[in-house]
From TrEMBL:
<dbReference type="Pfam" id="PF01425">
    <property type="entry name" value="Amidase"/>
</dbReference>
<feature type="domain" description="Amidase">
    <location>
        <begin position="27"/>
        <end position="457"/>
    </location>
</feature>
<protein>
    <submittedName>
        <fullName>6-aminohexanoate-cyclic-dimer hydrolase</fullName>
        <ecNumber>3.5.2.12</ecNumber>
    </submittedName>
</protein>
<dbReference type="InterPro" id="IPR023631">
    <property type="entry name" value="Amidase_dom"/>
</dbReference>
<dbReference type="InterPro" id="IPR036928">
    <property type="entry name" value="AS_sf"/>
</dbReference>
<dbReference type="InterPro" id="IPR000120">
    <property type="entry name" value="Amidase"/>
</dbReference>
<dbReference type="GO" id="GO:0019874">
    <property type="term" value="F:6-aminohexanoate-cyclic-dimer hydrolase activity"/>
</dbReference>
<comment type="similarity">
    <text>Belongs to the amidase family.</text>
</comment>
<dbReference type="InterPro" id="IPR020556">
    <property type="entry name" value="Amidase_CS"/>
</dbReference>
<keyword id="KW-0378">Hydrolase</keyword>
Length: 478
């Protein structure tokens, strides 16, 4: 065993490899041993490709900033020749790819040792990870009766459990930030089109979905974003250019910022007392750092955005299922997709092309409404979730209607009323692990910034991490 493995973030691991203190093979052996020892209790790491990783090490890893660091890919997107995928679905199980995606190429260029995938819910729908294709739910290392979040829940669980120090994720409605909140990690959704989507997609969910990372430290996210940023050739969108890059941005504190404090949901409903207390605690910390914090809430029509989001994702789900059916040449069979997906297909069948374009227009309007709010504010401070991590089963896909699953009382948008707002607006947003409940469950704090202001947001996150470090806080299983 490598005794320091749990104490090193990915950047420190790479530094130790560069010094010769430890080798890529030794780190990979440690990661595999942890998969064997810790993963059975979590069901987070899947489709392990030890041979592909050994070949990559033997061939010589790229001279990137994470050379030699064990790394896992979310089992949804990030297409790669050497890494088949279930995509969270029995319908798509064992999908193979003819070429690597742009985001995979850039992750590989960091020098990381990629060796498998992490669980995701079918279609990336929902704030939990309980897909039938993996034989059971993915569990939270902080409490195995609770969800690690979704849809990048397997990545959140694997990083929180110390299997890897960082992992790939993606975020179309909070799917990086929700697991970050549930698992006590840092997770950032970058500005729309900051990272590449091609060549398998031109955009995800009308531009709302983007790749990302689950990390223990802000600097690890900065390193990964630095290496992976930039549109791929032919991309339909381009993010505003970076000024100096993420690593340079975190080398010094940001300017003093004007921060809007929202201790309710974006529509004014109360949130769980522990989450509200965490938001108010974060506000006090930011004020102590010299930032200006005042109560304010966007006037944007968040409920209309949520309805539009639900329409767009139903159509995207129907498209992915239709492509799979066409590719294999036979109709959908019983039990091949889960109940929420089947219901999403039924809902999509009631929608016209005009309905879809109207929903996209509503999303664009919401982006303009949020941009107007951020003319007066640099950052919006909220909780990441309206409650602490949910118990397993609450958001499972079985026996549920798709629209009610998203919009019904006590369901997804009541539980996660903040994250999707910034997928719709395209703005950068991050979850920081600043609090825990009395019974030890993580609570994330959510910070969102102006469109294109990723570097300033990451610099603020790094300043907060320095002022209130979270690295020593570990799940009980560690």
């Amino acid at each position: 065993m490598i005794a320091e493995y749990d104490d090193w973030d990915a950047s420190e691991m790479a530094h130790r490899v560069a010094l010769g203190d430890v080798s890529a093979d030794e780190l990979f052996d440690e990661a595999l041993e942890r998969v064997a020892r810790r993963n059975p209790a979590l069901n987070a790491a899947v489709l392990i490709q030890e041979g592909a990783a050994r070949r990559a090490i033997a061939a010589g890893l790229p001279e990137g900033p994470l050379k030699g660091v064990p790394f896992l890919l979310k089992d949804l997107g990030c297409e790669a020749v050497d890494f088949p995928s279930h995509n969270g679905s029995r319908l798509l199980a064992n999908t193979v790819y003819p070429r690597d995606s742009a985001i995979f190429d850039r992750i590989r260029a960091t020098g990381a040792v990629i060796f498998g995938r992490t669980t995701s819910p079918e279609g990336g729908i929902g704030p939990t990870t309980e897909a039938a294709v993996y034989g059971g739910p993915t569990r939270n290392p902080w409490s195995t009766e609770h969800t690690p979040g979704g849809s990048s829940g397997g990545s959140g669980a694997a990083v929180a459990a110390g299997i890897v120090p960082a992992a790939h994720g993606s975020d179309g409605g909070g799917s990086v930030r929700i697991p970050a909140s549930c698992c006590g990690l840092f997770g950032l959704k970058a500005t729309r089109a900051r990272l590449p989507d091609g060549p398998y997609a031109g955009e995800g969910w009308a531009g709302m979905a983007i790749d990302g990372f689950l990390t223990r430290s802000v600097r690890d996210s900065a390193v990964l974003l630095n290496t992976c940023a930039g549109a791929d050739p032919g991309a339909p969108y381009w993010a505003p250019p970076l000024m100096e890059g993420f690593c340079a941005a975190i080398a010094r504190p940001p300017r003093r910022l004007k921060i809007a404090l929202c201790e309710t949901t974006l529509t004014g409903e109360p949130i769980h007392a522990d989450c509200r207390d965490a938001v108010l605690g974060a506000a006090q910390l930011l004020e102590s750092l010299g930032h200006s914090v005042e109560p304010a809430r966007p006037a944007a029509d968040t409920k209309a955005m949520m309805r539009a989001w639900t329409t767009i994702v139903a159509c995207g789900t129907a498209l992915s299922v239709r492509k799979a059916i066409i590719a294999r040449g036979r109709p959908l069979g019983n039990g091949e997709v889960e109940d929420v997906t089947r219901s999403a297909l039924d809902h999509a069948a009631t929608l016209s092309g005009a309905d879809y374009l109207d929903a996209v227009g509503r999303i664009h309007t919401y982006g303009r409404e949020m941009a107007a709010f951020f003319t007066d504010w640099d950052v919006l401070l909220t909780a990441t979730l309206a409650e602490p991590p949910a118990e397993l089963g609450r958001f499972a896909h079985s026996g549920k209607d798709y629209v009610d699953y998203r919009m019904g009382p006590g369901m997804v948008f009541d539980y996660s009323p903040f994250c999707a707002a910034f997928n719709a607006s395209g703005q950068p947003a991050a979850s920081l692990p600043l609090a825990v409940t009395d019974d030890g469950l993580p609570i994330g704090i959510h910070l969102a910034a102006r469109f294109g202001a990723d570097e300033e947001l990451v610099a603020l996150a790094a300043e907060i991490e320095t002022a209130q470090p979270w690295s020593a806080r570990r799940p009980p299983m560690l």
